[in-house]
Amino acid sequence: MSLKAVSADSANIARYLPLMAARQPGHPAVKIPRGRMRAGDIDYLVLTFAELAAEVEAWGARLVARGVRSGDRALVMVRQGLPLIAATFALFKLGAVPVVIDPGMGLRNFLACVARSRPRVLLGFPFAQLVSFIFQKPFQTVEVRVTASSSMTTRLAESQAENQKSKMAECSADTLAAILFTSGSTGSPKGVCYEHGMFDAQVRLIRDTYAIEPGEIDLPMLPIFALFDPAFGMTTVVPEFDPRRPASVSPAKIVQAIRQEGVTNSFGSPTLWRKIADHCLARGLVLPSLRRVLCAGAPVPASLWTDAPRFIPQGKLHSPYGATEVLPVSTATAEDINPSSVRGACVGKPLAENRVKIIAITDGPIAALAGVRELPPGEIGEIIVTGPTVTKEYDQLPEATRLAKIPDTGDRKPDGLSSLRSQKSEIATVWHRMGDCGHLDTDGRLWFCGRVAERVETADGPMFTEPCEQVFRVHPQVARCALVGLGPPNRQIPVIVVEPKAGMPLRTAAERQAFADALHQLALRHPHTARIRRFYFHSRLPVDVRHNAKIHRLALARWAATAKAVEVTSNK
Q1: What confidence score (pLDDT) does residue 160 get?
Q2: Most buried of 94, 139, 374, 566 (most Cβ within 10 A)?
Q3: Can you identify the CATH homologous superfamily of domain 325-451?
């Protein structure tokens, strides 16, 4: 049975699992770590594709028995690995809508997201159920509670004497499939409405762009990416780390899993892969089985591009660019990168099915594409994109939808409705505003220059985070740095906040001044940073939980407003 033959039958994204179960029933689908064997190897619970399909059937039977219906919103609060994969595919198959919220966003944001998404079903481990009783108001719409084991290795199918095959729900391409929340790194988290056709397009674009083949082995360091593996026919090796605390990852455990299981594919943030690279290089280790590493969540530092061939000699580092609202937009490899560039981070050419434009920065909503001013190559502006994976709206947030989406109505005037879903018959194309600044070069490559909300508006014009921070990241004692602006809009003072590497001596005023002077000398080499004279030193810059890579610059700006700076007064 061919993939195309099954694709014609249904738009339900859950159809991929039974396809792969029929195609490679005995091939491992999921490997969940459960300890160490006597020789020190990782001991895995292994489920084949046929067993995973049976597990999904068991979950589906249980959900139906508890009263879960097609169209229900189901808040999913289970562990990574088998529970997440089986529960989500069971919900897809029933036509229910998984609601996935990043637990690392903080309790207040989490509860606000729950209240706004209005789930009828809570599918969660015991602690999640307890939380719902302690904070009752956000969970007041919950009518059905299904408790999942807190264990990552529990198999529901083994505990059921009889499994009845449930019918796959009929779904069209524009049927709501899931609500996935953004990380909220530059604002409040928002629920993104995904349709089955959008997931289908993601599977196609990712598989074809990176030449992923059935039978490969994946180690996803962002749990939600494990949901793509059954569609690709890849084995999921669940990593040994807490996704709520990615900074605490043990690179030794990740390296052991990759080497032991012959992992061919992995997704993770630049911060995680920098730790893995340092571990390998310090010990002379290589990861010969890896064909590709997808590194996303923040710009990949120049040092990681340079070091990648030393520890993944048979593979390639890729940097896909996108967002929760649209992924992937473009992708870059080392061939696209100039490590000495300070023009921003090259994120490669847009994928063939996507269209990207750079438009003049506008802070308010844009009623129609006809009202934008497109910028020429090389000029920094706001990045907008359209394509088959572009989502149409945020859940229950019409104003946020109006700010982030641009309807392309051609010659027709927009009707002013905030929900693009309700206008779909009138709109030929929806463009998503990435919230990022960037530019296109003359070869059609896209360059990321920072978040629109984090640009610094000085009296001499705007300054953008990525081109400025690239200047200072080359200093060997800079772990992280951030450009922030102090003062009122259009008269902001640009400053750099630096997180020094461990062991950097900054105990005395003289040591801090010497470091600031060295950074200022770097600034003077480039016209766009020459005016930066004020430096702050911070022990640990605040970053997002999901990738441990996106710096919270707006929070840093508030901190710097009352912190003590080191100022450089001379250009020498």
Answers
A1: 56
A2: 94
A3: Luciferase; Domain 3 (2.30.38.10)
